[in-house]
Amino acid sequence: MLEKNGKGHVIATCRNPTKATALLELKNQFAERLNVLPLDVTVESTIEESARSITERYGSLNLLINASGILSIPSVLQPETTLSKVQKSSMMLAYEVNAVGPILVIKHMWPLLKVGGLLGTDGDIAVVANISARVGSIGDNRLGGWHSYRSSKAALNQLTKTISVEFARKKDPIACILLHPGTVDTDLSRPFQRNVPAEKLFTKEFSVQKLLNIINNAKQRDNGKFFAWDGQEIPW
């Protein structure tokens, strides 16, 4: 985004910016256009503080991407292969990070969402894009398992759809969409890549470009829709 769009600014957030090596490298490349702020989706005060910082420095946003997600943590959270392995603590943690966190971010960033904004794009709407997953689709669920992850992404889908209805009712020029990035070669998917065909395992660069194409072409009529990386709609 920074390389392809020579105008405007990008704000990246993470729990600990001092340890975010890749973001720091980008910051060195785009010192004037990239701002990195601390934000933990499980701590609402950090979301509020980020919103305040953005308001004071920039005044508005025209694109908000929520990419927080959790699938596994050694000795804490593992995708369940059977109902007997479901634990309340795992489900609550997945729900907090995958569903509640992104919605709280939208809640606090909503007043900042304006046409124009940081990236200076030419679109006539602002865009909110929540990164979901095909496994969060109830209609597409044929394999079962992964109870915590599936249900938390399904919750994200429902919450996003509900927000999109409110945006439409208030006639806000915002398209709130859900995106499935495919299976991407990241730390999140790495422990579960063994049975993924090589052609179905995407690089981060490929997936990001596909998702940005959808975002850049989003229209008001797309508000509340759920898209796969290839632009196809996914059933709820």
Automatic annotation (TrEMBL):
Q: Name one Pfam family in it.
A: adh_short
Annotated Gene Ontology cellular component terms: cytoplasm
Q: Which family does it belong to?
A: Belongs to the short-chain dehydrogenases/reductases (SDR) family.
According to the UniProt entry, its GO molecular function terms are: oxidoreductase activity
**Name of the protein this chain belongs to:** Uncharacterized protein
The organism's lineage? Eukaryota, Viridiplantae, Streptophyta, Embryophyta, Tracheophyta
